[in-house]
Amino acid sequence: MNDVHFHLVVTHLPIVGVLVGFLVLLSGYITKCPQVKTTGLGIFIFSALATIAAFYTGEAAEEIVENLPGVSETLIHKHEEQAELFYTMMLILGGVSLMTIFFQFKKFAFVKYGYVLVLFLSIS
């Protein structure tokens, strides 16, 4: 497995993870089940970690594919710009999810606002 294969495998984890995490967290929020909410937050944290792996394997994958026929350097550049935005958003989502889990375990009263914030970040 070369860097392109690894990048393609890892790239899809955060994309699917955001959708699954949103659905799990929303269902936990509706059913008021703290274990389900924690699972949703954990999915977002895992997705943020997968985003880091995808982001840092992108450069090596670019080096392999940029010289292939039919590969547009303009599209690669646009892909990089979108990846940087997604990377930033996922780090924020993962960080807020981690803080919300911390607030939940410390039993802070304002943890409910953390869940709402994570839900809004995950759909943006």
What would your notes on this structure say?
With 124 residues, the chain is mainly α. 86% of the residues lie in helices and 0% in strands. The protein has helices at residues 3-31, 34-65, 73-105, 111-123. Helix 1 (3-31) packs across helix 4. The radius of gyration is 17 Å and the shape is elongated. The mean pLDDT is 92.
Q: Keywords, please?
A:
124 residues; mainly alpha; 86% helix; 0% strand; elongated
H/E element sequence:
HHHH
C-alpha geometry: elongated
**SS content category:** mainly alpha
**Tally of alpha and pi helices:** 4
| Oligomeric composition of the shown chains | single chain
- Termini gap: 33 Å
Number of strands: 0
Chain-wise SSE layout:
Blueprint: H1 3-31, H2 34-65, H3 73-105, H4 111-123
Helix pairs in contact: 1-2, 1-4, 2-3, 3-4
Give a short overview.
The chain has 124 residues and is an all-alpha fold.
